[in-house]
Amino acid sequence: MERTQNLKPIRPARSFYERETNTVRVIVIFHLVGFIGLYFLPTKPYFIHLVPVHLWLMMLLVLINHDEPGKKFLAFTGIVFLTGWLVEYCGVYTGALFGNYTYGHTLGISVFKIPVLMGVTWFLLVYTTGVSMRKLNIKPMILRIFGGAVLLVILDFLIEPIAQRLDYWHWDGNEAPPQNYICWFIISAALLVVFELFKFKKQSMVGPSILICQFIFFAALQ
């Protein structure tokens, strides 16, 4: 009878863990470098031009680190990306959603005066928040949706003053009206419902790492 050979360690799991760890390091480093560059006046103009590069990079890191991507994930990405952009289009051209505002030049290429990056931004916000809520092991779906939407409203509260300073967008009254936060909550909750309907299994720490870094980044720039 032949002796059973020792099984070798499963390398794919270790490889995935190493990739996740290295990606989180990249996320932290890029946010730290971005903060330093935007904080000091001599480097600020140069780093403002790098904002689109940073956001596209964060989306790329999410896409390549999503565990077992497939048609559902691609569909979810497309739905949130397109919905996010259309919401901003309606917001700018009607003023009925968030209030009266216009976009600056920092966010790069625009279509009908709406930066393409707004689709990226909404995808990053919804995905990272959705994964984070699941990481917290909150069982009732309604609580994950409600908690995630509240979290995104708090983040938007931190973003708004910085956004005007960095020429992301500008409000007619120089500050976001209350309806902006109400609408932000409703849209965030709706897109988090979409996230839940696609039933992604618990993902890596890449999404939560981006969300945490965003909170720290905008809080530190206040």
TrEMBL record:
<keyword id="KW-0812">Transmembrane</keyword>
<dbReference type="Pfam" id="PF04240">
    <property type="entry name" value="Caroten_synth"/>
</dbReference>
<keyword id="KW-1133">Transmembrane helix</keyword>
<feature type="transmembrane region" description="Helical">
    <location>
        <begin position="107"/>
        <end position="129"/>
    </location>
</feature>
<keyword id="KW-0472">Membrane</keyword>
<feature type="transmembrane region" description="Helical">
    <location>
        <begin position="141"/>
        <end position="159"/>
    </location>
</feature>
<feature type="transmembrane region" description="Helical">
    <location>
        <begin position="73"/>
        <end position="95"/>
    </location>
</feature>
<feature type="transmembrane region" description="Helical">
    <location>
        <begin position="179"/>
        <end position="198"/>
    </location>
</feature>
<dbReference type="InterPro" id="IPR007354">
    <property type="entry name" value="CruF-like"/>
</dbReference>
<feature type="transmembrane region" description="Helical">
    <location>
        <begin position="21"/>
        <end position="40"/>
    </location>
</feature>
<feature type="transmembrane region" description="Helical">
    <location>
        <begin position="46"/>
        <end position="64"/>
    </location>
</feature>
<protein>
    <submittedName>
        <fullName>Carotenoid biosynthesis protein</fullName>
    </submittedName>
</protein>
